[in-house]
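2024-03-11 09:14:02 INFO receiving multi-entity request
2024-03-11 09:14:02 INFO entity count = two
2024-03-11 09:14:03 INFO echoing inputs for audit
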Amino acid sequence: KQEVTQIPAALSVPEGENLVLNCSFTDSAIYNLQWFRQDPGKGLTSLLLIQSSQREQTSGRLNASLDKSSGRSTLYIAASQPGDSATYLCAVSEVPGGGADGLTFGKGTHLIIQP
Amino acid sequence: EAQVTQNPRYLITVTGKKLTVTCSQNMNHEYMSWYRQDPGLGLRQIYYSMNVEVTDKGDVPEGYKVSRKEKRNFPLILESPSPNQTSLYFCASSFGRLGDEQFFGPGTRLTVL
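2024-03-11 09:21:47 INFO inference complete, emitting structure
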C-alpha cells in the first residue's frame, strides 16, 4: 500500500529565505504528484501538478521536482513571504490496479514564515 | 467562477440522526470523490464516482453512502452518524480519473455528539 511521507512536519523560517519541502512515496508506480496548500479552516488549493513523465513544474516562486525512480519530490519556495504560511500537502495518484483509486496524501508540512 | 461547493460548512449533530452533506461542481467534471481529514491520519478517500450512476468505495467507506444522479452533484450521506465520524470532510472533482488536477471544496466540519 502506497505511503507518502513529508519532512519536516513543521518548519519556521524568517521572511525572505528560500526553503525546500520534501515528499517521499513508497511505490514509484504513480500517475502524477500534486502539491496543495491548506490554510486554517479552508479547503485545499492546488499549487502544482507533475505528471509522472515530467521532472518539474514551476509557478511563480514555486518549483516542484519529481524523481519517480527514487520516490521523491521537493517543493522549492523562493523568497518566502508571511503569506506563504500554511500547511503544504503532497499527494500521489496511482496507476489503476494498485489497490487505491484516489489520491494518497502525506500528512503535510506546517510552514510558518516569520515577518 | 469554476468551483466546488459544499454545504453545510459546519454541522453539529447527535448520534443516529441522518444527515446529508451536499457537493456540487460547475466544471463538468466526470470524477468526484469524498475525503475525510483527521489529525495524525491525514486525508483519506471515502467514496468516489467516475460518472453518473457509477460509484465505488475508497479507503474508509464504512458508515457512509453516496449517490451520483447528476453529473454536477455528489452528496455524502451518513445514515446513522456516530462520534467517530467527527471530522473535516472534503469533496473533490476532476475531469477524469487519472492525470488530471483535482479541485477541492472548502470543507465541511462535522461534529457528532
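2024-03-11 09:21:48 INFO post-check: The radius of gyration of chain A is 14 Å.
2024-03-11 09:21:48 INFO post-check: The interface with chain B takes residues 31-32, 34, 36, 41-46, 49, 51, 89, 91, 93, 95-96, 100-103, 105-108 of chain A (CB under 8 Å).
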